[in-house]
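[09:14] KT: can someone run the structure on this one? pasting the chain below
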Amino acid sequence: MFSNNLFGEVQWKAQGVGCGAVTDCDNGAHANHKIHLTCDNMGDLWKVNYPDNDIVTAPEIIYTRDKNGNVTTIQVGTIPRLYNYNILGLSRQLTESIKTRAKRKIVLHGRG
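[09:31] RB: done, structure tokens below
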């Protein structure tokens, strides 16, 4: 089940739920089943907001892109994942920074 905005972009989706009628799908999914999706001004996915429940609080995911549309950052909660590209637009490097409970910062580097 999903809902689109006027531009045809998916605003939210809910999996594993059903609706009684085509016109009643918006009311068929409870708020804690809806995954909200937000697009930027170019129609690319910008933010994903997962519903919280009694067991888990899910972090939102934010995508940042460069002028060519390449994903440069994926921020999951407080953890950023940075992507670098070469002149051909191919992925060149991935950097992920994780803060541990001991208040240390771990930086992972990967090369493509």
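[09:33] KT: thanks! The two ends are 37 Å apart (CA to CA).
[09:34] RB: yep, looked fine to me
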